[in-house]
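$ run holo --ligand "S-adenosylmethionine" --emit tokens
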Amino acid sequence: MTESTPTPNQIIDEMQTYYGLRAEVYDVSMGYDNTEVVEHHAEVIAELRRIATGRSVLELACGPCFWTQQIADVAEHITATDFNDTTLAEARKKSLPWERVTLQQADAYDPGIIPGYFDLVLAVDWFAHVPKSRIGHFLAGIASRVPAGSHMVFIDQTPGEKAFTGVIDDEGNHFQERVLDGDRKFRVIKHFFSDEEYHSCLGSHVRDLRIRRFPSCRRILVHGITKEI
Ligand SMILES: C[S@@+](CC[C@H](N)C(=O)[O-])C[C@H]1O[C@@H](n2cnc3c(N)ncnc32)[C@H](O)[C@@H]1O
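-- output --
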């Protein structure tokens, strides 16, 4: 680890701060307001809708709820949670079926305190940010929060041309830099896991792991069923 590489606690704090400040512009910065960009996501959205149909969903790190909105009409209920109130404030502006969607501030590393029954845990653009040393704790938290046999879905990005920075810490976390307001710099962890790495991370918590890539939107969808613990 170099002198400037943060500890896992420091980078978790830094990412929370960064995404909290980015909340207002997040959807636009992702192209989620652009019909063409959203159309490129059609296949991954269709797969997610298939899995979420009729399920009680605990969504972690929901941000302004773009993905929540994609499944809100097919899920039984969604509790969409995020660490930052700023992202939830953006979500509240959306037209969602509020009788079936609950927003709640919650830390994804502490899902035990989130009330409700769930049989699907979903997180989009989140798993890639979890420090490697916290992945076991994070997955154990989810696995103990839902009944065995529940669904677990992570959607993340696959790497673009300039994705790899070469900045990697002692525990193997890959870092990228993000800039807000032209000059405020933040570091984020961004993993681009191989299938083997997903199997090795998730294997003790889920069975029937399926990994699908969607090149038209550079997305990967990882789906498993929680094991008995
Ligand atoms: C890359 S954004 C993804 C947002 C949303 N899932 C989406 O795809 O539109 C990451 C999100 O994680 C949230 N976040 C960061 N740290 C968190 C934590 N410890 N617990 C829950 N959410 C967290 C941020 O506020 C941000 O909304």
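-- notes --
The longest helix spans residues 8-30.
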